Amino acid sequence: MAEYEKEIMGTKGLGWRVSLSIVACVGWLIFLVLWLFFYAENYVWERNIAIILMSILVMIIILGIPWMMWGMKHRKRHELEMWKTKGFKWRVWMSGIIAFALLIFLIYWFWYQAAPYSVYQNIAVLIVCFLIIAGVMGAAWAPWGIKHGHKFEQKRPTSYYHKEKSEETEEEEEKTEEEKE
Fold first, then answer.
1. What pLDDT does 78 receive?
2. 69 and 125: one domain?
3. How far apart are CA 181 and CA 175, in angstroms?
4. DSSP 63-127
5. What is the pLDDT of residues 53-97, one digit of tens each?
């Protein structure tokens, strides 16, 4: 096993998070199937979408908090440097809050507001929401990426597999150069 893989496998707190993820995902799928089979017909399609979005929100909360905490504890050196870079933290928090707010808005929209509109108008609302979010995120992240992105570009491969492949490629290039000479 690669050194990185050994490091990950021996990481404290990883096991229960993986188990939680499996149980939560299977539980969510069971909920979804039961809902669609037995309860969905009692609601209009807009409210069914709101309920599914609400279940996704619950899944994000259940899985997001433990995995976020694990990720924060196990950051690499370059990731720590990124967090120390001016403007990065508030952009990350802003991105999370905006995504959370979008999900809350869509739940509200489909539960209370979507009924008088057609399917196409509701799809238009979804598209407009995502375009607004994309514009806000792009406007927030693009200047930071232009100013600081070059500091965090990884010139080396990020995984053992890619490292192994890149070493083979370098050896092949060296052999080709030797053959040419």
1. 83
2. no
3. 10
4. HHHHHHHHHHHT--HHHHHHHHSTTHHHHHHHHHHHHHHHHHHHHHIIIIISTTS-HHHHHHHHH
5. 999 999 999 999 999 999 888 888 888 888 999 999 999 999 999
* Alpha-carbon gap, residue 169 to 173, rounded angstroms: 6
Q: What is the largest CA-CA distance in the chain?
A: 77
Output the six-digit token pair for 109: 């929209």
Kindly tell me the burial class for residue 106, based on how many C-beta atoms sit within 10 Å of its own C-beta (0-12, 13-18, 19 or more).
buried
Going by the DSSP 8-state scheme, the letter that residue 156 receives in this structure is: S
The domain tally of the chain equals 2
Distance, CA of 8 to CA of 73 (rounded, Å): 12
Q: b/e string for 51-88 if b means 16 or more Cβ within 10 A?
A: bbbbeebebeebbeeeeeeeeeeeeeeeeeebeeeeeb
Locate 145 and state its tokens: 């990426």
For residues 142 and 85, membership in a common domain is answered with yes
Q: What is the pLDDT of residues 95-112, one digit of tens each?
A: 999 999 999 999 999 999
Which of 51, 74, 97 is where one domain is finished?
74
How far apart CA 134 and CA 138 sit, in angstroms, is 6
Q: State whether 70 and 82 are in the same domain.
A: no
The count of other CB atoms within 10 Å of the CB of residue 96 is 13
